[in-house]
Write a structure and sequence with these properties.
Distance between the termini of chain A: 29 Å
CATH superfamily of chain A: Chorismate synthase AroC
Number of domains of chain A: 1
Radius of gyration of chain A: 21 Å
Shape of chain A: globular
Strand order of the largest sheet of chain A: 1-2-3-7-4
Largest interface: A-B, 101 and 101 residues
Strand content of chain A: 15-25%
Number of helices of chain A: 10
Structural class of chain A: alpha+beta
Order of helices and strands of chain A: EEEHEEEEHHHEEHHHEHEHEEEEEEEH
Oligomer: homotetramer
Largest sheet of chain A: 5 strands, antiparallel
CATH class of chain A: Alpha Beta
CATH topology of chain A: Chorismate synthase, AroC fold
Chain lengths: ~375, ~375, ~375, ~375
């Protein structure tokens, strides 16, 4: 349950206010150059406290690699990456001990396990995704090293504000190495990770919600470039199915779509089907990418395009109705603690990580990457 | 890859124009009353040739149970259910041998395996879902027998026509045993399995597409009732993640959402969070069900609500551009064969089956159903 | 529980006196030439009724392949192999319904599942190993086709009579293709599958036991030739561990040893360690093979050598004490039915099958055989 | 490959001379009282430097629990246990970089991964079993807490010296709580963990080997008491098969047997079959325990009895022949470093741990222990 993948396996552990959070990455082939810096750079993208839109909890999130590396390269042995928690304030949460926060997993964890580490959501905290990101950083390095695969996520909607993207219409931005780098720069320099024309409008939308002690959601698009043909399996372990499950492993995600996604329902077969043709060099090409890079559960060589619906952060300052499980009374609560008014931009590195882990696992299983040694 | 589930496991086999299709269901606890009739009734709902909206291929799809049952009850041994193919016309497909049909898995299977049983899509055919339905029928019986769980799917959108549902607004229809039965009757008596006021409009929409040698898609909603609190796992094997993967194992599905799904992106935290309260009998209740029955990956006791985007059938009579892999030329094809102008209503029993298999597996794993004996 | 393997997966089903027994083999790469004959030839080696030392139950055990083959080759889709039961006599067993036979699984199955198909041992019958052999036949073909791997089992002990093997002392017999074929001929033409000088003595030993309405056990050695270096995994999924588990999946096996096995306990390190050297062509060689082809859980290139202890058939004609679970009385039973006075020779094809399945799975996982296509 | 178990899962990591070794234990139900002391006490039994028969490497092996515990109890979240390496001397091994030590995994790891952390055997070091023991300590606590299961290992043979056990003949010692405790005391106070009459003779045997710069092997017996009826699965995941695989995951183990083991081969069916009877209280009993507590792969309620063959430590001071992989020459080596002349007594806590992990996993899967909460 805390391990993801069959051949490339990420096992995560830790609680929001426990001693440490981390991951053991097993099944990474030997001879991949890997350093703490490779992991740290992804953790920094996920780290809190970087803008007014994220929780003020201060955590350096400094990773230490404890195993699996020798002379700067992986050895095929499991890689343990560890981050010690520093800025813990468990007392912030003690008053919430018996009053499950609406929209949170407090209630379901408590009823399932009959023992709940309620400090900051314990195991259900977003902080736990540090493990996802550690695993994803190794996967990204592996995919980049072997196939030059790039996985890029960005916000396309915040609350009711849809992003305005001209570049998205033609996908050339993804085909040109330079414009791609520029795109990534724009995304990363932006507090909402939204490279759109109307990003300011989105920021104002969030500020308004902050004023109201409320939170907002959004939609994130993730694109994986350079995935070779043939990744994924027929029937039950389809590439899309595995990706959907991976992305749903992020607490806030309420929907996943591939390619045109829900719009497919409105299209005629003649519109939806992507025409196939040979280009001048007799490479197989598709005229459109409605399928989002996947046909019959197997990658077809075009960019993998995914979108996820991210719900608004459930932690809000507004008064909310809930129950007191001890007194058996209906009560009202106000959540103090520290939390993000919009989790969308911080979800992005986690979503990328899950896509990377899934691809790494399927590409090893599918014979694209040797399971033992590069 | 052809096995789904960890504790309740369904292994499917067979090709569209091979000798037989079927499934081995392993991990069903002993002492569940089970007959061929239980399976047949679900297969009949999936069977082709029932309305003008489905392929005219004539298949009785008669199941035979070969193992795992003794004195009318399961024994804990694997249950093999088999359907022999009858109305095979492999020659219908021989002209498509080298010209992959757009929107189909022909190309990706062929490139992945370098050997393709092209007859009727072979292994990628919708016919393969007979195995899913056999497994799902056993799972449904198990869930119904142990927890009175009901899984109900219906069409809510066909092409651009959204269903008009008054009953859907208030969920009482699901709480009253009688109105529920009436609803199921309406769904099953309807050629599009859409219990909406404007179902006729939808039918005309499809007929128009048929005239144009085209196909249409739609959206299906699946509801699971009486799922107890605590099903599903934190972090990586969330109930929503497992359900999403299960539903994506149906070829035509391009998106999955839970509860309010993509609408969550547009909501404020204060709108999205489902308020918790004690009812008069001190039962924990939720004022709304925006979360679709799942919090933190674990069921919370409200109905599980899922929606899937079903793409239009890729097999269409219209001329389409593709490639000839032998001559390396760009060509045009017209698909003859027999196919459904809209696959949406026939997807429903398959989607229900996958939801049932997923729930059965997670409920055994979660200690809700004893793994060996009822 | 009824599926073996991760990448090369065999799912077995059926009962001794049910309609059919069989297996679904999933994960066999595409483009392996495979026919019913390949399977049948292995099933014939396992079939009952071939000598006075095996049960007189008459079964043709004719296999039918229902899926996964196209134009004489595997397609990557699951291969279902089925054998219909013919010579069923369930009534032979009805008197044993409530009196579990000592040494059999009757009691444990019944207590575990609270529902027991007692007819001929039901699911615990040796007949179920037809599924193992179907899976093993596919695995053997795959291993032979890709690496010329040969898996050969033979009896080395019957009851207290140890085989007298001069050829076994020097392992040249395994290195010469011709002497190997001759060895296999001797094994297969022999009623106890024991290529020893004193095989007649063994036969008399068994005949004596038959006279006494008793049964005997023995020891089987299995050798796998041409396994490349590097198969198996460090730590938990060692090649020896996987093989031991695979062989223990045969009911009668009470012990497994690798290389010198239990004799290792008596040796000094300086005796046990196999010296390593370069031969004239700078190939790495070992002076001895005490390790049985495996070091640190990973194959080292020498023959894999395994031995299993096979207990005497628990079904004997002699009076035995047991309980009547209905009357709660201590009783005595005499087993009529049909059974083997010595199961050792019929265990051999099953043991070979399990070794083959294990190797196929580990070699696909280890990157030795491409998982999708040959 | 570094994870063991399906429902109760132990993931191990670390190298002999890396920063740390440890384990993540996932799937332990909530509400098990657990402290660092529970783990430490098992680690202390495995720790080096306790007698002249073990390596003089000085390691405190102090465990720190980083997650999964709240208020002294497990929460259902993964438990990470970590031991930092202290007394590292990687330079001891640099001269062995290119000369694989006979009997070790140096060669196979190196050929498999093409990158080898040779420092002290790296990942193949016995030190890695700290992770096994951490996992086993949690499993032992769980088994003891829920079913009062006790797992006891002891040496029964050292080199050619068989232990002389009068108490072993009648199994009363295991049935009396007091005599059992006394037995454990004797085992633990003894440098070879052998509670036999002739233990001194064994010690002298080892001292003689030490003088000769050689090492010796032995046989260990492990008994699991109070395992309920019904643990384990028919066909492929038999209790014996799982235990055999678990025990083979210890590098030095070359053979595993259950009950009478290899002696079964020599017995007649009438001797081997354990008679069943009702005792005065109508409990089902067996007159003998030849089956070692397992029938048809499922526990039958009698003590589980296992024996493993432990090979002599491959690290010996004597000159040995091997190859230099760089110069491609045949060479001789002498292993300096620090190592155990006999590994048998230190294997015992590891073997017990693997038995405990296996039982915990199978008992959760079999519905004996609730997977979520005690």
């Amino acid at each position: 349950m805390n391990t993801y993948g069959d051949m490339f396996r990420v096992t995560v552990f830790g609680e929001s206010h426990g001693k440490a959070v981390g991951a053991v990455v097993d099944g990474c082939p030997a001879n991949l150059p890997l350093s703490e810096e490779d992991i740290q750079k992804e953790l920094n993208r996920r780290r809190p406290g970087q803008s007014i839109f994220s929780t003020p909890r201060k955590e350096e999130d400094k990773v230490e690699l404890l195993s699996g590396i020798f002379d700067g390269k992986t050895t095929g042995a499991p890689i343990c990456g560890m981050v010690y928690n520093k800025n813990m304030r468990p007392r912030d949460y003690s008053h919430l001990k018996d009053t499950p926060r609406p929209g949170h997993a407090d209630l379901t964890y408590r009823l399932k396990y009959k023992n709940y580490d309620y400090r900051g959501g314990g195991r259900a905290s977003g902080r736990i995704t540090i493990g996802h990101v550690i695993g994803g950083a190794v996967a990204k390095k592996l995919l980049s090293y072997t196939y030059n695969i790039k996985i890029i996520g960005y916000t396309i909607k915040i609350g009711k504000i849809c992003g305005d993207f001209s570049y998205y219409k033609n996908s050339e931005v993804f085909e040109n190495e330079k414009s791609l780098e520029r795109l990534i720069e724009i995304i990363e320099s932006n507090s909402l990770r939204c490279p759109s024309m109307n990003e300011k409008e989105m920021e104002e939308y969030v500020l308004e919600a902050i004023k109201n002690k409320d939170s907002v959601g959004g939609v994130v698009e993730i694109v994986a470039l350079n995935v070779p043909v043939g990744v994924g399996n027929p029937i039950f372990n389809k590439l899309n199915g595995e990706l959907a499950r991976a992305l749903m492993s992020i607490n806030a995600v309420k929907g996943v779509e591939i390619g045109v996604g829900f719009k497919a329902a409105e299209m005629f077969g003649s519109e939806m089907n992507d025409e196939i043709y040979f280009d001048e060099d007799k490479n197989i090409r598709f005229k459109t990418n409605n399928c989002g890079g996947i046909l019959g559960g197997i990658s077809c060589g075009t960019p993998i395009v995914l979108r996820i619906a991210v719900k608004p952060t459930p932690s809000i300052g507004k008064r909310q109705k809930t129950v007191n499980l001890k007194t058996l009374e209906n009560v009202e609560i106000e959540i103090k603690g520290r939390h993000d008014p919009v989790i969308v931009p911080r979800v992005i590195p986690v979503a990328e990580a899950m896509v990377a882990i899934t691809l790494a696992d399927l590409m090893i299983k599918g014979g694209f990457i040797h399971p033992c040694s590069l």
